[in-house]
Design a protein that fits this description.
6-stranded parallel beta sheet; Rossmann fold; alpha/beta; 4-stranded parallel beta sheet
Length: about 325
């Protein structure tokens, strides 16, 4: 029998970003594997509809209930709500370390002020993260796992797969396109991540095409990934981000900074030549060298990233095993 009667996963209402999609995926996959689960939109005192992009998951929207035998999972931005649970078991899913710490790297004083505001508003525990030790903890990334371990908290892995793109049928459909599609010397980027660094690079290299990823649906996004050579991301990588994974599975060469999850070789297993320190005086030159190399010898770099693409293609299987292990789904324990 399963470890819990039902699992409720808390999600900010009306939010359409990577974190909420991961939450909807989690509920969907739990049910698919035989563990009853539902989503719980916050604020709890209002009725909420599932956002249109996530209606495809066809998952139950539950009202808040605190019942023995259930598990309530909160995202890391709602840790203090877990203290109010009396009868159910409560847990935190650490999808974004930096959303909790408020660390954006650009201005340490502003980061501390942002955290202090959350503390005053009751969104962070007054006694610090150590006061969360009695809860269950799940880590979306190795970055989160190490962050928690440094605080004396042991976590179990729950590393969401990138939606659709890691399904078997999709992997098969793009295999031929990976080797036959003509690619442009284009540099794709997320306009919401690392904007200052992006501006520096666009100013330094006006001869290159920098294309912001905005206004695309999932199919259009896949097409632009398949026809471009580079995706760059100099954001703070608060967890194992989705866009770098989505770009790589479609054959883009990924260039990042060294913040957050991008700093380690578990969450982002690409060579150091693709991870640049934007604080280095050699940063602009290094970006020029690696970009020129990719533009002029894409096939070599494509081959270097084959192992990363293989890892990404196995994400759904790995996630299923993590769910089975974490929640004893279909076992006698």
């Amino acid at each position: 029998m399963n470890k819990f009667k039902r699992i409720l996963v808390v999600c900010p209402a009306n939010a359409v970003t990577a974190g909420p999609e991961a939450i909807h995926q989690l509920v969907f996959d739990l049910n698919r594997l035989g563990q009853p689960a539902a989503i719980l939109y916050h604020p709890f005192n209002k009725q909420h509809l599932t956002p249109e992009p996530y209606q495809k998951y066809q998952i139950e929207v539950a009202a808040y209930q605190d019942q023995a035998g259930d598990l309530i999972i909160f995202p890391e931005i709602m840790t203090t709500l877990a203290f109010k649970v009396k009868f159910a078991k409560s847990a935190i899913w650490w999808m974004s370390v930096n959303n909790y710490t408020c660390n954006r790297y650009g201005n340490p004083l502003r980061d501390k002020f942002r955290y202090f505001k959350n503390l005053i508003r009751g969104k962070r525990p007054w006694l610090g993260i150590c006061s969360l030790k009695h809860l269950l903890h799940f880590s979306q990334s190795d970055y989160a796992k190490q962050f928690l371990a440094d605080k004396g908290i042991i976590s179990m892995p729950l590393s969401d797969p990138i939606p659709v793109y890691t399904q078997d049928y999709y992997i098969k459909t793009i295999c031929d396109r990976l080797s036959t599609t003509v690619r442009e010397n284009a540099i794709l980027y997320n306009p919401h991540k690392g904007a200052k660094i992006t501006s520096r690079l666009k100013e330094a290299f006006p001869q290159w095409d920098f294309l912001p990823l905005q206004g695309y649906n999932r199919e259009q996004l896949a097409d632009i990934f398949l026809t471009s050579k580079i995706y760059m991301d100099f954001g703070h990588h608060p967890g194992k981000d989705r866009l770098p994974r989505e770009a790589a599975i479609h054959g883009c060469c990924v260039i990042t900074g060294r913040y957050g999850s991008a700093a380690n070789s578990v969450d982002l297993p690409i060579g150091d030549e693709y991870k640049l320190d934007d604080q280095s005086p050699e940063f602009i030159k290094q970006f020029s060298v690696i970009t020129d190399s990719i533009f002029n010898d894409y096939e070599t770099h494509f081959a270097k990233l084959e192992s990363y693409r293989t890892i990404l293609s196995q994400e759904q299987y790995v996630f299923d095993q993590q769910l089975i292990n974490a929640f004893c789904i279909g076992t006698d324990s």
